[in-house]
Description:
Blueprint: H1 3-29, H2 36-43, H3 47-51, H4 57-80, H5 86-103, H6 105-115, H7 121-124, H8 126-143, H9 149-172, H10 178-195
Amino acid sequence: xxxxxxxxxxxxxxxxxxxxxxxxxxxxxxxxxxxxxxxxxxxxxxxxxxxxxxxxxxxxxxxxxxxxxxxxxxxxxxxxxxxxxxxxxxxxxxxxxxxxxxxxxxxxxxxxxxxxxxxxxxxxxxxxxxxxxxxxxxxxxxxxxxxxxxxxxxxxxxxxxxxxxxxxxxxxxxxxxxxxxxxxxxxxxxxxxxxxxxx
Length: 199
């Protein structure tokens, strides 16, 4: 391995360790507790090193949110690979979204709180546009390609609203029985599908 390759590998490892440390702080103390100093203490580097990778704390949060969208797309695509019926695929997508929101609670909240603080969310998070396109393509399959963009967008916002609501309920009621949660998931997915317009 050349010295240049070693430097690049070390650089990638430090970058990753910064993000892992930041996510650890967020999970244990909340996003508001995140600081460059705390990250530096965890990875045992000086804050100056971290500033060589990220301009400030907000840049770290944005990068974590970007990773969250990428992870959500990957999970959704993996689930989609298992089904072929268009409506069933939409149900699978919604279920994957809900499960991600619950399993990656802190990251999910971070994705949306960070998104609300940037001037242009789609520019800051290109993966968000890719994620929306998964829904757009699926809804177009169901309608035979006749779905208008305004109708798609209202459908998509309905989906997101339901999922935010479910995620919030699980944050509030922390002791919900998993079986009860499953019942709620199924009812919610049916409810979402029933509200979607396909013309």
